[in-house]
Design goal:
Mean pLDDT: 93
Strand order of the largest sheet: 2-1-3
CATH topology: GIY-YIG endonuclease
Order of helices and strands: EEHHEHH
Pfam families: GIY-YIG
Family: Belongs to the UPF0213 family.
Protein name: GIY-YIG nuclease family protein
Domain GIY-YIG: 2-78
Number of helices: 4
Number of strands: 3
InterPro entries: GIY-YIG_endonuc, GIY-YIG_endonuc_sf, UPF0213_domain
CATH architecture: 3-Layer(aba) Sandwich
Strand content: 15-25%
């Protein structure tokens, strides 16, 4: 069974939060870090993984992504602080080999 994730990326000062979904977390975070795609995260320099959740089904992950995107910033910050109170980059130390 292939795992899926929702994740939050933040910029250096934690003023911008991006929410995404992926079935390959390491590859997708790497893509954000090297600005592989020109879009929101590259424009606003969101290159810190600050929160994630894991799902057994991509449809569950997509539903959760929609739910989180509809929420306000305060709820997103509360989730981040529950897992990562210092807003550290959770991908620090990951090896980005494929």
């Amino acid at each position: 069974m292939k795992m899926s994730h929702i994740y939050f990326m933040a910029n250096k000062n934690n003023t911008v939060i991006y929410i995404g979904v992926t079935s390959n977390m390491v590859r997708r975070i790497y893509q954000h870090k090297i600005k592989f795609y020109k879009g929101f995260t590259s424009k606003y320099n969101c290159n810190k993984l600050v929160y994630f959740e894991e799902f057994n089904d991509i449809n569950q992950a997509l539903a959760r992504e929609r739910q989180l995107k509809a929420g306000n910033r305060r709820r997103k910050e509360k989730l981040i602080k529950s897992m990562n109170p210092d807003w550290k980059d959770l991908s620090d130390g990951w090896l980005f080999y494929f």
